[in-house]
Specification:
By secondary structure, the protein is α+β, with helices and mostly antiparallel strands. The protein folds into three domains: 78 residues, Sandwich (Immunoglobulin-like); 179 residues, no CATH class; 45 residues, no CATH class. It contains twelve helices and seven strands. A four-stranded antiparallel sheet has the order 3-2-5-6, with no helix packed on it. Strands 4-1-7 form a three-stranded mixed sheet, with no helix packed on it. α3 packs antiparallel against α7. InterPro entries: CFI_box_CTERM_dom. It comes from Rugamonas brunnea. This is Peptidase.
Length: 336
């Protein structure tokens, strides 16, 4: 049995129907809009929701989620004409090369959302901001070449969106919500819901998690691994050799897919990941800044005492003699 939803795709500026827009899950499912911009999605009864990407040459791609509540009511969305970003001036800014290549736009919600989160975290806690800068320093070593490879293939773009970008984006949205506004329970619940739906069952979360675990352990992939994963395996193993990239990208990605497979508490998964943040690679603040910077860092993990103490232990080992300041900031239990 299947259920059906009619989707109408327009040009955002003119509201004209867009013929020939591709609706795809990246794994052979989907098709193209007709001369009126319409597409009828036929979805197996096994699924209660389904995420697809809408793309068309000359336009910025976007995602659309089909769900049962839409049955019988035509759905409408639009694509914006793609506007290339201005050339980099070499100062400031963060370039999400892989996310841009996969989503098809430097202005996609995933790219702009990641930039906004980085800016918010750095504004709240300078120590965390310096860690993010160090992560990007390593990310830039491999990401442009990998992004170029992804951009050459529509199938690769769709696959990377489904396997990497959407789950990772949802993970960081929950992590950001817990770090920046954990008391907004409605927003936290929504972020948890979106993270749970970011790893659809049709992609077999348990298998994806197992492939990521093998990569993290440096073990060979099985013969039946997806073609996209084996195609990108050399670049992925090269990226895994960068410790900050491993913590910032591969570990949360594996936790996301494993959590989807085992129905784990994702707040606890995020807390465990944040508690292992490699802040020991960041230069210690000056004595005058230490108290303020530790307090601002502690505010990012106030939602979980275990994460606070793990971060405090990491910093104490890296910065001997800071135990009193760490305890005052709440990053170490008194007497630890």
């Amino acid at each position: 049995m299947v259920w059906a939803v009619t989707l109408v795709v327009h040009d955002c500026a003119t509201n004209a129907g867009l013929q020939g827009a591709l609706i795809s899950d990246g794994y052979g499912g989907g098709g193209y809009t007709d001369s009126y911009g319409q597409f009828i999605a036929l979805i197996d009864d096994y699924y209660s929701g389904y995420i697809a990407q809408i793309s068309k040459s000359g336009y910025s791609s976007r995602n659309f989620t089909f769900d049962r509540s839409q049955i019988g009511t035509p759905q409408s969305t639009c694509l914006s004409v793609y506007v290339p970003p201005p050339p980099s001036s070499g100062g400031g800014g963060i370039s999400c090369f892989i996310v841009t290549a996969a989503s098809g736009s430097a202005q996609s919600k995933e790219v702009t959302g990641m930039r906004a989160l980085r800016d918010q975290v750095a504004a709240r806690a300078p120590l965390a901001g310096r860690l993010i800068d160090a992560i990007y320093d390593q990310y830039w070593r491999f990401s442009p070449a990998l992004a170029d490879q992804i951009a050459e293939s529509e199938a690769a773009r769709m696959g990377v969106m489904a396997l990497v970008v959407r789950p990772l984006f949802a993970w960081f949205q929950l992590a950001g919500q817990l770090a920046l506004a954990p008391d907004d329970t409605a927003a936290v619940r929504q972020a948890e819901k979106e993270l749970r739906s970011a790893c659809p069952r049709y992609l077999s979360p348990a298998k994806v998690a197992s492939y990521l675990a093998l990569l993290l352990r440096g073990e060979p992939l099985p013969a039946g691994a997806p073609g996209l994963v084996t195609q990108l395996e050399p670049q992925l193993r090269s990226a895994l050799a960068l410790p900050l990239v491993q913590w910032a990208i591969f570990e949360p990605l594996q936790r996301t897919w494993h959590g989807a497979a085992e129905r784990l508490d994702m707040r606890s998964q995020v807390a465990a990941w944040l508690g292992a943040a490699p802040l020991d690679c960041v230069m210690s603040p000056t004595p005058q800044q230490l108290e303020e910077e530790l307090a601002s860092l502690a505010s990012l993990v106030r939602f979980d005492p275990g994460a606070r103490n793990r971060i405090g232990a990491t910093l104490l080992a890296a910065w001997p003699g800071t135990d009193a300041a760490l305890a005052q900031a709440g990053l170490l239990d008194a007497g630890a």
